[in-house]
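Q: Sequence in, structure out?
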Amino acid sequence: MSGGVYMNTLIFHVDVNSAFLSWEASRRVSSGQPDLRLIPSCVSGDPSRRTSIVLAKSIPAKKFHVKTGESIGSALRKCPDLTIVEPDFTLYAKCSKAFKDICREYAPVVEEFSIDECFLDMTGTSLIYPDPIATAHEIKDKIREELGFTVNIGVGSNKLLAKMAGDFQKPDKVHTLFREEIPEKMWPLPVTKLLYCGEATAAKLYQNQIKTIGQLAESDQERVQQILGQKIGKQMHDFANGIDPSPVKEQAEEAKGYSIATTTEENVTSLEQADQILLALVDSVASHMRREGRRTLCISVSIRYTDFKNRSHQRTLDSATDITAEIYQITRELLRELWDGHTPLRLMGVGLSDVTREDYSQMTLFPEDARLKEKEQKVDQAVDSLRERFGRDIIQFGSTMNVSGRVGRKYKEKMEFEQKKI
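A: Exactly. Output:
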């Protein structure tokens, strides 16, 4: 391609191939063990637990039609000889930092998109890197040689096109998707391949005979908005035409809320069980919020029945709080407003939204209330300090000690903690 193609915005998208599995495989290879990438293998939890799913899989496992996100039981039925390794989040954090540090050697601005993805804004680097494609290969090869795992790099004129390019063919590849390449490389693809076009959105488009990205791009925008809604319709139509003005941001936006959920090992059928799980959830999410110096003004509880129907309830507070005991008490009240206490539940969740950094609280006429809040804050601070020094398991609230039987090791490991931008 001519050099003029690169005169405007130039974005790289770097994505680790089968990250969790690759990171575990490279560690094992470095110590002389077999390479997990060369055998049917996956990263998952205990295969006896119904909550365990495939988090990442090898290419040989893919040949048995093992899919990311499916239950480990289903994967084992497809491939009985599947090698299963448990996740190691400490390793993942170390590897994530390592490959992003290499990316920062080349790009003035790097945005961390997820634990195994990042965007590099290479705009204006032509004097340093006159051949962007060669530079992308250099970054890819350096990560493989120094860290022992592979990445795909997509090169495009905006974030959307760079990310789409990186998914064309894997592993260990560099692909381009510039504006003039859209008709050839992107438009023939099914709409399901378009970024953020989920199954429900694709189904609506298919019902209206819009099956390819090209057909979506050529459709009238107002018609697409009638099908999908104003906001999503415009976004999908813009994306199909390769339009994405979002900048690469060095600093991630602050989360507007935090949430945590767990699928229970056994169905929850009593308030006693539910309260123990609630406390474990609140303990985890509140401590994370405190680490970021935030307080919440809105608390929510969500549940899922065994028929997969979901319900949720929330309460807005008069003053922001980060106190575990206070948040827990409100979640208990919300749960009792939401649930009859015996219809079986398979999932429970807690959300903290409308968060703020402001350090204020509503004035009280009762000094004992203020003293109690101060005491509870000191307890939380002491617990947070001990866990920071010695690990999370060094101390737990008394009534969460028996939660592990119902929530399983998910609580001790991660409890599927998810920080969301609500």
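The chain has 16 helices and 13 strands.
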